[in-house]
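Fold this complex.
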Amino acid sequence: MGRGKIEIKRIENSTNRQVTYSKRRNGIMKKAKEITVLCDAEVSLVVFSSTGKMSEYCSPSTTHLKGEDITSLHHKELMPIEEALQNGLASYIVYNAYKKVVPKEIVRANAANKQTTHAHYRHENYVERLLEEENKRLSYILHQQQLEMDGNVREMENGSAYNHDKGREYPSSHIPFGFRLQPMQPNLHDDK
Amino acid sequence: MGRGKIEIKRIENSTNRQVTYSKRRNGIMKKAKEITVLCDAEVSLVVFSSTGKMSEYCSPSTTHLKGEDITSLHHKELMPIEEALQNGLASYIVYNAYKKVVPKEIVRANAANKQTTHAHYRHENYVERLLEEENKRLSYILHQQQLEMDGNVREMENGSAYNHDKGREYPSSHIPFGFRLQPMQPNLHDDK
DNA sequence: TTCACTATATATAAACC
DNA sequence: TGGTTTATATATAGTGA
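Structure:
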């Protein structure tokens, strides 16, 4: 599309690459805006230059959410989000967040020549993991407390109030039903 | 770019709009791939037609994550993600997920003619809300347990084992330091 | 929807500032 | 990097199948 034809392969000259990037980024952004307007489409476009600079375009929303909080949506409308979050879509999306926020220098310093397709599928569990960590933390506190509680009870029974024995397992049968831990999988549906 | 020049405004003829959408979607996808290759850039592109059909392009990852789990990243590299998650970027991203997963018919049925820019900023707290709910649930269990524990202790002290008084506040000074609840904000940094 | 066919509008490579 | 300019390569509107 210019004075000469170019092959679609990495532009080795770094200056040229940057210049071309700039021009084409503007071009693609313009196209994104145009298709949005012409075709009543919705577009989300995020581009990173090889130096790590981000540009993005997100088409204006055309939903009924104007002036409202998402929390005012009917449950029916939120379910797909929640299901998606539970089914790992969130992690794909967090991967995109990752691309947005991790300074490119760090990533590229490690990139060398490794080229990978679909590496992001590896990240599928990331959100779940983060939530799991938080759950673990709370669970730990709960567990400690259960030990403490059990300790107190036994101490009371034994008449010795301060001989805490935190090392042993707490038999699950001793935990009142209401206090049992939920499975580790975060349950985003509950307690609405 | 064709036989005639067109204004950049919504194409009213529905068939034309669809045809133009198809062509331009292909065009923009091609451009996305080209800039990826030519300029060593990273691109994430999601497009919805006005009928709700989604197309997307995501450039192959060129990071060191090949064959590795994101959990193997150094903490230094994960921090920006975690900060972003805490700072509400996640919710912007969940908004994009929302656009991906909510059946367009539902959204459009409600859309009427309301046009909104930046409605998605309203969604900023959605992820935080979900996490908060989960925390609340766990916190509730903790609280109940603290009551139970306190009850047991007092019951032991009083010699009456089954007179649970769950209604009153648990004085925070009674809670051993290690068992105090963390603030409601999910702490995604801890316990790595 | 998708395919093909052009004529034309646009994007952009190369060049220089 | 960001603006020019200009020649050329591409994208695509309009049309028909």
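Chain A touches chain B through 114 residues (CB under 8 Å).
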